[in-house]
């Protein structure tokens, strides 16, 4: 987003609606959506928006109108998606540690289950024999922005393992379950193309070995990376897309049918389109620091505290002020409540409005009332 162009608009929004305020650029969300839809030259690409990134109903409706489906991870998410206009057939339900109650509720909603654990699979088969379902496998690759959001590899709780294929086949055969999709999710913010491809290769190997006859799709999961720091390079997705398409075409050839290729982006669609606007209430100089104290805090944007994530901050009210070093902090009674530490910013004065960028994914949705 070009801050200069939007500065007046953002200040006006902060004045009219008050702060803290999340603002979104819907054109950018749609642009990112189209990028993901087209970066892989395969005629049957589909996108399931990982709504955990941001379940704002306006964003859900926007993406529904654009033609997206949904990756839902809880019954609450599935119900909200249905209320926002998605049909049950457009929703893949990838829950973790699924209780029987949740299983029955989600089944009644009509969504497609994505299961990744043998005991849950058995239970599902006993209760709902002859059903369609998708299976999540461990991609056997460790990748992602930080250790907390890496979901593949030996130490991850997610996914079935390739050595469980025969057991999976035994359970699905016993209950007449039709495996219509195979899925991986490797992590969030994967910058290495090679890791993305290795994960896909591993899933396609599983697909080759398991020979499920009813496959309709292969789902690569989410994990597309966005730059958070100024000057950080963007991943060249069209280059990656060509590699993905070549591998996928070869697989479909072996399989004997062209399948749908699914992606589940969350961060890539919404992160850059969102900003959190906060107002500085106090500027406090201590012996060692200058704190810019805002009217927000980690209950609105927890990524810096939880992951040490960098979010770029702009002083909208004084863009040309002299640069000084600030700790930009929230109003919570914890010293860790920081949006940025030792950050050079144009002079901040009480009353200034700060724009915290890339706040469209995993900020509002990970928020709370603390
Ligand atoms: N599919 C599944 C099954 C997932 O678990 C996730 C994210 C996605 C898709 C979407 O991943 P994305 O494209 O957004 O990377 N709170 C962390 C991110 C956690 C992602 C968890 N799973 C953050 O703020 O970086």
Detail the topology: elements first, then pairings:
Elements lengths: L2 H15 L3 E4 L1 H13 L6 E6 L6 H10 L2 E4 L2 H9 L7 E3 L6 H10 L2 E4 L2 H10 L4 E5 L28 H10 L3 E6 L9 H18 L6 E3 L17 H19 L4 E4 L3 H4 L3 E12 L4 E5 L8 H5 L5 E3 L7 E7 L8 E9 L6 E4 L14
Parallel strand pairs: 2-3, 2-9, 3-4, 4-5, 5-6, 6-7, 7-8, 8-9, 11-13
Antiparallel strand pairs: 1-10, 10-11, 10-15, 12-15, 13-14
Helix pairs in contact: 2-3, 6-7, 8-9
The structure holds ligand LLP.
Description:
The protein has 370 residues and is of the alpha/beta class. It contains eleven helices and 15 strands. The strands form two sheets. The protein has an eight-stranded parallel beta barrel with strand order 2-3-4-5-6-7-8-9, surrounded by four helices. Strands 1, 10, 11, 12, 13, 14 and 15 form a seven-stranded mixed β-sheet that branches. The longest helix has 19 residues, at 237-255. The chain is elongated and about 70 Å long. 41% of the residues are buried. The mean pLDDT is 97. The site of ligand LLP has 21 residues, from α10.
């Amino acid at each position: 987003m070009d801050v200069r162009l939007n500065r007046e608009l953002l200040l006006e929004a902060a004045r009219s609606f008050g702060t803290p305020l999340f603002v979104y650029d819907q054109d950018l969300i749609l642009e990112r959506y189209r990028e993901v839809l087209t970066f892989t030259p395969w005629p049957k690409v589909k996108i399931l928006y990982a709504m955990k990134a941001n379940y704002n109903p306006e964003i859900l409706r926007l993406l529904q109108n654009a033609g997206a489906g949904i990756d839902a991870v809880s019954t609450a998410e599935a119900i909200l998606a249905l209320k926002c206009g998605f049909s049950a057939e457009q929703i893949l339900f990838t829950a973790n540690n699924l209780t029987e109650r949740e299983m029955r509720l989600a089944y009644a909603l009509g969504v497609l289950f994505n299961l990744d654990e043998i005991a849950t699979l058995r239970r599902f088969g006993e209760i709902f024999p002859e059903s369609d379902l998708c299976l999540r496998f461990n991609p056997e690759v460790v990748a992602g922005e930080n250790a907390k959001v890496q979901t593949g590899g030996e130490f991850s709780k997610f996914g079935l393992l390739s050595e469980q294929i025969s057991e999976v086949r035994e359970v699905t055969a016993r209950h007449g379950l039709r495996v219509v999709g195979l899925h991986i999710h490797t992590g969030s913010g994967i910058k290495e193309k090679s890791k993305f491809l290795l994960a896909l290769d591993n899933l396609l190997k599983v697909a080759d070995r398991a020979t499920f006859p009813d496959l309709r799709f292969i789902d690569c999961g989410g994990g597309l990376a966005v730059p958070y720091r100024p000057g950080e390079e963007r991943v060249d997705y069209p280059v990656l897309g060509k590699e993905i398409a070549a591998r996928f075409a070869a697989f479909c050839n072996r399989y004997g049918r062209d399948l749908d290729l699914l992606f589940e982006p969350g961060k890539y669609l919404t992160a850059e389109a969102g900003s959190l606007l906060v107002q500085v209430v106090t500027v406090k100089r201590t012996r060692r620091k200058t704190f810019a104290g805002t009217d927000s805090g980690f209950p609105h944007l927890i990524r810096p505290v939880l992951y040490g994530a960098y979010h770029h901050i702009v002083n909208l009210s004084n863009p040309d002020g002299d640069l000084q070093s600030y700790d930009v902090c929230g109003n919570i009674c914890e010293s860790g409540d920081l949006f940025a530490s030792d950050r050079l910013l144009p002079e901040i004065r009480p009353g200034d409005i700060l724009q915290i960028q890339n706040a469209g994914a995993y900020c509002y949705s990970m928020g709370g009332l603390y």
